[in-house]
Each structure stands twice: as C-alpha cells, then as structure tokens.
Amino acid sequence: MSDQVNWFVIPSDNSVTSILSNNEPSYDLFNETVFQRLVYGEREYGINLVWEDPEPATPSIRFLAASGAPSAILYGERVAINVRGGGYLRYGEREYGINLKWSDEPVYEWRLLGNPSLVNTPVDIANPVGLYNTVANDYVFYDPRRYGINLKWLRDKGKFNSKPWYESVADALTGILDELGNFVFEIVNRAFGVVDFVLTFFGIMLPKRVRVRIVILRGADGRAIIADGRLPQRDLAAQKQELDDAIAVIKKCFREQLNTRVRAAGGVLVETLPFPAPQAALHVRCGTGAWREDFQEAGKYFRYNAATNRSQALLGYGAPITIFVVDDVEDKVGCSISLLSDYVVVDRVGMQSTKGAPEPRPTTPMHELGHACGLWHSWPALLHTGNLMKSGTPRGIILELYQRAIMRNSRHITFL
Ligand SMILES: [Zn+2]
User: Considering the domain 165-414, what is its CATH architecture?
Assistant: First the structure.
C-alpha cells in the first residue's frame, strides 16, 4: 500500500462499480490506513473534517466532473469533491492543520489517480485511489499531526507531528492489557475446568464446542491472499478446495480427538476482508517477533478484525479463535503467540496440503489452533509424524491424552 494511493471510494449502493457525478452525496471516502471514512465534523483546530467508523450511515461524499458529463468519472479527470454539511473542498492556507478550506461553489481542482496507465479510463472502485489536488500539486494522505485532522500533503510526510508519543504508548498498552487479560482469563477458566481436565485423562470427554473463524487478508494489490474472486476459474476452484480441506481437518480433529464441535464464530466461518491490509499484517514474524508485533501495527490490525463475542469481554470463556490467512510468516508457515492472543496466523504455504503425510490435507491451521489452546511442541509429539503438534509437516491430527486434556481445558473450548 503506497502512501498516496490509500483511499477507497465506497458507493452507498453496492451494485455501483464506477463513480458518477451526483446531486446527492452517495459515496464515502474511506482511508485504508485508519479504516475510517471522512465526514464533516467540528473540531477546534483546522478544517472541520473528522474520521468516522464505516458502519452503514448516510453517505458523506459527492463528486462532480468538471466536464459536466453524466458518464463515469475517469482517472485523472478534474473533479470537485463535496462533503455533506461542509461544502466543496479546495486548497487554502490555514494557520493550523492541513491547507484545505470550504467553498460553496464547486472547485474542480481534484483528480482521482491510480496506476498511471489507467488515466482516462473509468475509476474502478475495487481499487484504491489517490486524491490529488492540482493547486497544491500534491496528494492528500493520512499522517498523524498535532493540530487538525490527521491529513497531510505527501511532501509534508512526517512533519508537524509532535508525534503523539502517547499514541504509540497507547497501542502498546492496549496490547499489553489485552495479553494480560487473556492470561488471567486463561488461568481462571482452567481452574474452573479442572474436573473436565481430569476426566479427559481417563478418556471421558463430554461434548464441547469451539468457535472459529478464518479471516483472509487482502494484499496491497487488492487481491485476496487465497481464493480471490478474480482468479481464473480453475485456480479459484483449487484454492477454494484448499480452504475446504483446511476446514475439514479442523472439524475432524476437534470431533475425533476432542469430542468438540466447531461453530462458525458469530455465524461466519470464512470472511475475506474488504480492504488491503497494512504491510505489517501481511508479512509477519514468529516467536518474539510476533509477540512484539502484537503491540504494534499488525497486532492492532488483527485485534480490530478478529471475531469477538460478548462472553469473552467478561472472562474470556468461549472466546472465538480467528485464523488470519496472511501472505507470509517469516521462515515459517504459521504462527501463534499461544495463550496470549485469540488469533493465529497461517500463510499461503500453510494452507497447502503435504503429499504423503498421515493427514494429506493442510494441517497447519489446526496445528496453530492447538498452540492457541495451550499446546506446545512436546517431545512425544515430535517422535511420531501422526501427531498434530509435530513442529513441521508432514504431520497428522492425533493428540495424546495429556494434549487432549490441556486443549479441552482451554478457555476457547467450552460446554456452552
Ligand atoms: Zn507449531
């Protein structure tokens, strides 16, 4: 994701695929750095623009083509941008915040830009655009600043930030509190589950359930990491099969080894995120790298997009586990920071099967769920390839009694 091309134009009518000049606001400008839309709102410093969550709401933006043509707006064409409640945006110097002002009349000093080769073709709303101002000769992009809305001209990148030192501290603090909470929840839930833990050792496993969701990230090119809708038919079918196979392994292992049924978290088993993910979330590290990233941009993104439910806010009982399908896990194919988070990551390779393995379908997603439920690479597991917690592939899906007891005792695997 480049800095200058980080806006999505989202139509209120999702059957629309292009941008038309409108009399009424019928679009939103969504910034993919902050996952929020731009709307009119009063603030103490700078232009009255604020960020708002993209939940279904009255659309805020309308575009007017300088040509007055009713046809779809083209890349590079001069347009005016109107914000509901504010007016038309134009370049104008200010003492505080980005140099933008309001105009009552349309000001055609903007261009929507994408790949340079696309100039004069209709803007494709499936891809991000840059907001280019012809007076400033620059792009508007997201960048934190001390005064006014967090927007800047690209040439001002990194300036005017007496950077919210408190912001990065807040991100880290959120991460630490989240991990601490998860750790406490884990201990409390495990203490309460001690009877089931002992019973499992004697081979008695009463039916339990687990809530799981697979969330597929989108790359910087806007394509889903797996099963992108624009793939040729044959590749798409093959990748959908990989997903189905991974899900089948998860269901089979939970059912046969743990007497646990897999539920779709919040009724959604597989979700593809609508916008490209930040680079930090697409390429993740494992080990202490993953733990550190949990406090940074990647962790923030994963927590924001993870499946949640109400009970987890209380004690973590029955918290869903989210499997993020990312582009690459450095030197590995999957990763979990164990009990400390409710998400795991698996990369493109981790979604593929291993030929000749005891379990021929992809086992990495299930293996990472094992980690999230408290299992580690323990030595008996390393000895036979049939065990789920063998560190590399090929592996199977078998769990030893003690592994079953530990997993079933996790706060993610519950009776209710
Ligand atoms: Zn592992």
Answer: 3-Layer(aba) Sandwich (3.40)
Question: From ligand 1's centre to the CA of 375, what distance in Å?
Answer: 9
Give pLDDT tens digits for 221-270: 888 999 998 899 999 999 999 999 999 999 999 999 999 999 999 999 99
Alpha-carbon span 359 to 356, nearest angstrom: 8
Q: Give the C-alpha separation, 60 to 12, whole Å.
A: 9
With beta carbons less than 8 A apart as the criterion, state whether 313 and 407 touch: no
CATH classification of 7-156 is 2.80.10.50, yes or no? yes
Stretch (H or E) spanning 365: helix 364-372
Helix axes 297-305, 165-192, angle to 10 degrees: 50
Domain boundaries, the chain: 7-156, 165-414
CA of 228 to the centre of ligand 1 (A): 27
Cis preceding linkage at 56, omega within 30 = no
Give me ligand 1 centre to Cα 358, in Å.
17
CA of 205 to the centre of ligand 1 (A): 25
- CA proximity to 333, closest of 223, 213, 219, 246: 246
Alpha carbon of 323 to ligand 1 centroid (Å): 14
- Pairing, β 283-284 against β 87-91: unpaired
406-416: per-residue pLDDT in tens? 999 999 999 98
How far is it, in rounded angstroms, from Cα 305 to Cα 299?
Answer: 10
pTM: 0.65
Q: How far is the CA of 376 from the centre of ligand 1 (A)?
A: 7
Residue 386 CB contacts under 8 Å (≥ 6 apart), including other chains: 358, 395, 396, 397, 398
